[in-house]
């Protein structure tokens, strides 16, 4: 069961403390494969972050902060989309050289083209009509689906040609990076189900996200060789994952309630969104530490 769950499926240094960002910048060389996997994986999170922010805006829950999140996530996704193909020295990325990765990234394009129209409208008007959210969510999930394939291909292609990054660590960075996306997907579903005609659709997706986050966190903490996830390679990563677990437990209580159909108030949703930002930051820190460990080893 655990194998099935995990197999399914920065904010770069912007989400890191200055000390951690500095340490990771020093440890990671230009166009390090681990950086590419990290940055590509971040696109999955951004795809769900934009819809989450738009939903909070539509329901007037911390609308100013949500607008900032939508704007920043849109800008970062757009910039990274180009960087993953053409390179960007500021992201430590050179041009992509693997044809199968390029093809996978191109398959994201038609879905992103539809998604970005709604995102841009929300940014321009500083408001999102609730009627637009269903389309935004559907196309955002399509972006996520094809971006997930691109990350999978990126991890394997770059690990195969790297002297410093073995496949086990590449897979582990992929799985750890996916945790960031799940934090945003889960809050998005809690938000969307409050106004949905059929909230069970979002409740089921929420329950699956919670279960996948749980099973993946366990695999990251202990290692899970059946799918290639390695145990934490450093004590710092191990400690960071323990901190992730501590932040996750009270968040999960609220998400489980929502998945079971209990009404979540405006105040609770606001608190949940803020608490999940801390979880996202800490999980992002863990991913960065995994990436830095490839050069430090």
Summarize the structure in words.
It contains 12 helices and no strands. The protein has helices spanning 2-7, 11-14, 18-27, 33-58, 63-86, 99-106, 109-125, 130-160, 167-193, 199-222, 235-259, 266-296. α8 (130-160) runs antiparallel to α9 (167-193). Mean pLDDT is 90; it is low at 1-29.
Major beta sheet summary: none
Number of strand elements:
0
Q: How many helix segments?
A: 12
Structural class: mainly alpha
Report the radius of gyration as a whole number of Å: 18 Å
Summarize this structure briefly.
With 297 residues, this protein is an all-alpha fold.
Write a concise keyword list for the protein shown above:
single chain; mainly alpha
Topology:
Layout (H helix, E strand, L loop, with lengths): L1 H6 L3 H4 L3 H10 L5 H26 L4 H24 L12 H8 L2 H17 L4 H31 L6 H27 L5 H24 L12 H25 L6 H31 L1
Helix pairs in contact: 3-12, 4-5, 4-8, 4-9, 5-7, 6-8, 7-8, 8-9, 9-10, 9-12, 10-11, 11-12
